[in-house]
């Protein structure tokens, strides 16, 4: 018994080494795809869940700003699900308040974790107020992947931007490069950390924790490779916007009812 | 907890890149700058720089030795840094660093070896014991110091110094590009950034040589070569003018265009960076040295040696501070702006002790000095100055042109 398991372990180890070595050699010539695919398997201990084919999906996220009530359930769910360290957020909610005679006031106390206390500046003269949930946009042309010195951050075939915690050296270059401040250096692991759209859940056919927790249906998650997916329908037919479009990062988080003040 | 102004994204409260990342471009700049001075002698044949040419080369190597230390100290997982060499991602501005650094190191080591080869062989023959062993090791088995061999050496040095110039510019321009290529940060993302880094690197390198050369001469009791200082002062003045113009052009363009980011940059420069940018970088670091250098250049003939040396020493010291302030204002200042462009983080204060502290920074800056002392013990760099001093003493022409 012992012998057998050692043999299978050795075989697995050799296999991993060979795959690793070849892919790193090949990746010198074709950096994008292959590295992403091999790294994506690395990320899942024991490979992907049964029947999950990353090449068969392309995920997107839609946030309907007309529905958000700023309750912070999503932030709490995310903290719990992903064990996010204090003072950092994989997802957070911002509040915008504006009126004719007052400047736009933005706040996000504790990332909206405990909801929003009433505004310190008062609501006098506020004509418009709304909440904006945010997270990693899983950009298609993403500066964070571009700058990572050796692709510890990579774009997976199903459209997610992920960090390989085994490779990341914690230089923080990607944190500086993300224009949305979606990333942070995890003080525990000393590596880059950010929203993964709950990859461990979605690759098993579940929804991200924040989507599941949202009581109003503000947050919607879907697969645009699935012709009957409601999210795909919204992206195809509604008026949608993305954050900081001038950065040309091609986010895969789309907002319904996005206002011009939103940063 | 964190006192911030305006709205800052929740993940954006912390200054991520610390004092170490300020030190890294500073040290790299000294490497490039000192190398350029030695190349001015070896390639462009500025004879007046002869007294300092050897020293400049060693100084450059000394700083290059520690250039990666601050970076490695900053990394959460420094051992994984080797991946940059194994599986580099060439779209990353950071990925090239290992190669640039390694390539430059090879050029520099070769050049130092060739320049000192004759001395190494001579000492290997002359000395005894431990020293002899070291020299034998350094000689790498090549003992031919005939006139032809030296001729070849000199040609090789010239060639290495020549390819070293673009390499030095690349090494440092690339450090600027590291910041300049981040579109997420309006204070960094300008095409001028790499160019400003290059020119200010040369400024810091020449300034450091002026300071260290004068100190070395005092320590050894040799005369300070007025002509050598004079040439460096002229180059320093020129490079200072270029650097300062570029630095100001950058601000003026931003201010004039009044693009979205100007509002926050204006607040940054007049608020938290008022002292370090306007006070130290611009007034103390540019204006005053500019005037001092101008006085030395214009009144060269009417000025006593003591005055000239003191003035150049002061100007160079101020410029060393200026370049450091510039790195600080770029690296730390840039991180104070939140990516929301609607607020600023609290100022960063480096800690006194610890991995990325002031103590560590001081230690890193002392190591090259120690290296220089060891190098001087093994391979004296100022033989030329010694000869000069002796000649002066013999002819008793002490007061004219040189001073102690
Ligand atoms: S939002 Fe930021 S971290 Fe996420 S993919 Fe885009 S650039 Fe990268
Ligand atoms: S922190 Fe990690 S993921 Fe980010 S750029 Fe550095 S190595 Fe890559
Ligand atoms: S859970 Fe839904 S409604 Fe509540 S803050 Fe999050 S997105 Fe908004």
Strand-and-helix sequence of chain A, N→C?
HHEHEEEHEEHEEHHEHEE
* Heteromolecules bound: iron/sulfur cluster
Proportion of β residues of chain B?
A: under 5%
Instruction: Identify the overall geometry of chain A.
Output: globular
Q: What is the mean pLDDT of chain A?
A: 85
Binned, the helix content of chain A reads 25-40%
Biggest sheet: strand arrangement of chain A = 9-1-11-10
Quick take:
The complex is a heterodimer of chains A (263) and B (404). Chain A is an alpha+beta fold.
Q: Which key terms come to mind for this protein?
A:
heterodimer; A: 263 residues; alpha+beta; 4-stranded mixed sheet; globular; B: 404 residues; mainly alpha; two-stranded antiparallel sheet; two-stranded antiparallel ribbon; 14 helices; 4 strands; binds iron/sulfur cluster
Describe the protein's architecture and organization.
- The complex is a heterodimer of chains A (263) and B (404).
- Chain A is α+β, with helices and mostly antiparallel strands and 263 residues long.
- Chain A has eight helices and eleven strands.
- Chain A has helices spanning 2-29, 31-43, 73-82, 143-147, 173-177, 199-202, 209-213, 230-237, and strands at residues 59-64, 91-99, 102-107, 128-135, 153-155, 161-163, 184-185, 192-193, 219-223, 240-241, 253-256.
- In chain A, strand 2 and strand 3 form a beta hairpin.
- In chain A, helix 1 (2-29) runs antiparallel to helix 2.
- The radius of gyration of chain A is 20 Å and the shape is globular.
- The model of chain A is unreliable at 1-45 (pLDDT under 50).
- Chain B is mainly alpha-helical and 404 residues long.
- Chain B contains 14 helices and four strands.
- Chain B has helices at 19-42, 50-66, 69-74, 83-86, 97-126, 129-139, 147-180, 192-220, 226-257, 262-270, 274-298, 305-336, 358-378, 383-395, and strands at residues 5-7, 224-225, 342-344, 402-403.
- In chain B, the strands form two sheets. A two-stranded antiparallel ribbon of chain B has the order 1-3.
- The interface between A and B is large, with 48 and 41 residues.
- The complex binds iron/sulfur cluster (3 copies).
- The site of one iron/sulfur cluster has 15 residues of chain A, from helix 5.
């Amino acid at each position: 018994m012992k012998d057998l398991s050692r043999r299978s372990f050795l075989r697995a180890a050799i296999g991993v080494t060979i795959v690793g070595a070849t892919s790193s050699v090949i990746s010198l010539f074709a950096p994008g795809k292959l590295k992403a695919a091999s790294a994506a398997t690395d990320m899942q201990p024991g490979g992907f869940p049964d029947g999950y084919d990353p090449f068969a999906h392309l995920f997107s996220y839609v946030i309907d700003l007309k529905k958000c009530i700023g309750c912070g359930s999503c932030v709490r769910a995310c903290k719990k699900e992903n064990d996010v360290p204090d003072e950092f957020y994989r997802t957070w909610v911002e509040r915008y308040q504006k009126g004719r005679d007052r400047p736009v006031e933005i706040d996000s106390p504790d990332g909206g974790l405990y909801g929003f206390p009433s505004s310190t500046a008062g609501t006098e003269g506020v004509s418009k107020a709304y909440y904006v949930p945010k997270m990693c946009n899983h950009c298609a042309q993403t500066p964070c992947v571009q700058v990572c010195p050796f692709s510890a951050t990579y774009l997976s075939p199903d459209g997610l931007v992920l960090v390989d915690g085994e490779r990341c050296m914690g230089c923080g270059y990607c944190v500086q490069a993300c224009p949305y401040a979606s990333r942070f250096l995890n003080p525990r692991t000393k590596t880059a950390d950010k929203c993964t759209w709950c990859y461990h859940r979605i690759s098993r056919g579940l929804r991200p924790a924040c989507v599941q927790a949202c009581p109003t249906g503000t947050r919607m998650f879907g697969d645009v490779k699935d012709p009957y997916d409601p999210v795909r329908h919204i992206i195809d037919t509604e008026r949608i916007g993305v954050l900081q479009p001038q950065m040309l990062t091609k986010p895969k988080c789309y907002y319904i009812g996005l206002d011009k003040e939103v940063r | 907890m964190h006192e911030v102004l305006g709205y800052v994204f929740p993940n954006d409260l912390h200054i991520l890149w610390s004092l170490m990342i300020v030190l890294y471009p500073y040290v790299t700049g000294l490497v490039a700058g000192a190398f350029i001075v030695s190349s001015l002698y070896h390639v462009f044949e500025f004879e007046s720089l002869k007294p300092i040419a050897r020293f400049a080369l060693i100084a450059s190597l000394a700083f290059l030795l520690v250039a990666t230390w601050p970076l490695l100290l900053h990394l959460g997982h420094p051992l994984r840094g080797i991946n940059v060499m194994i599986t580099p991602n060439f779209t990353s501005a950071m990925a090239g660093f290992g190669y640039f650094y390694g390539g430059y190191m090879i050029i520099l080591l070769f050049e130092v070896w060739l320049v000192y080869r004759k001395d190494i062989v001579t000492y290997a023959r002359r000395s005894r014991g431990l020293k002899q062993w070291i020299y034998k090791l350094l000689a790498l088995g090549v003992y031919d110091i005939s006139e032809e061999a030296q001729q070849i050496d000199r040609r090789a040095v010239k060639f290495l110094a020549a390819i070293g110039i673009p390499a030095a510019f690349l090494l440092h321009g690339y450090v600027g590009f590291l910041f300049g290529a981040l579109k997420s940060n309006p204070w960094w993302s300008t095409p001028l950034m790499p160019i400003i880094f290059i020119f200010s690197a040369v400024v810091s390198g020449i300034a450091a040589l002026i300071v260290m050369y004068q100190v070395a001469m005092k320590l050894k009791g040799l005369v300070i070569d007025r002509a050598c200082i004079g040439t460096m002062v002229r180059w320093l003045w020129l490079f200072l003018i270029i650097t300062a113009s570029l630095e100001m052009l950058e601000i003026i363009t931003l201010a004039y265009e009044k693009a979205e980011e100007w509002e926050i940059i204006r607040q940054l420069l007049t608020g938290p960076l008022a002292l370090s940018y306007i006070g130290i970088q611009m007034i103390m670091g540019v204006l005053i040295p500019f005037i001092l250098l101008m006085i030395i250049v214009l009144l060269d003939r009417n000025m006593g040696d003591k005055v000239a040396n003191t003035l150049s020493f002061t100007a160079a010291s101020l410029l060393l501070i200026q370049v450091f302030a510039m790195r600080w204002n770029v690296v730390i200042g840039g991180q104070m702006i939140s990516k929301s462009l609607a607020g600023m983080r609290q100022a960063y204060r480096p800690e006194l002790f610890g991995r990325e502290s002031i103590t560590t920074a001081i230690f890193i800056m002392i190591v090259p000095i120690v290296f220089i002392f060891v190098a001087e013990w093994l391979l004296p760099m100022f033989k030329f100055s010694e000869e000069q001093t002796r000649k002066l003493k013999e002819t008793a022409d002490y007061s004219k042109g040189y001073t102690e």
